[in-house]
Specification:
Elements (H helix, E strand, L loop, with lengths): L7 E6 L9 H14 L7 E11 L2 E10 L15
Antiparallel strand pairs: 1-3, 2-3
């Protein structure tokens, strides 16, 4: 048995009332967090978007799953450098 998880995840949501319906804002926050955590394209396993209906409209959230031990992503179309 191992003490390590096979993947990691984090979730983000818009504030419940103000901005809850702003999906583009949430997606920009997700992109910023992926860059901040230096999650490479080959490490990303899944990204789910969830909508919960409230009296004010949809409340958006996202969960990102990644494996820091994914295959090397060198030379796979990285436009940087």
């Amino acid at each position: 048995m191992t003490d390590k998880w096979s993947c990691q995840h984090f979730s983000l949501a818009n504030p419940l009332r103000r901005g809850a319906t702003d999906l583009p804002k949430l997606l920009r926050r997700v992109a910023t967090e992926i860059e901040k955590r230096d999650i490479g394209p080959m490490d990303l396993l899944d990204l789910t978007i969830h909508q919960e209906m409230t009296g004010d409209g949809p409340w958006w959230s996202a969960t990102i799953y990644w494996s820091p031990d994914g295959p090397a992503d060198e030379g796979l179309g990285n436009d940087e450098g």
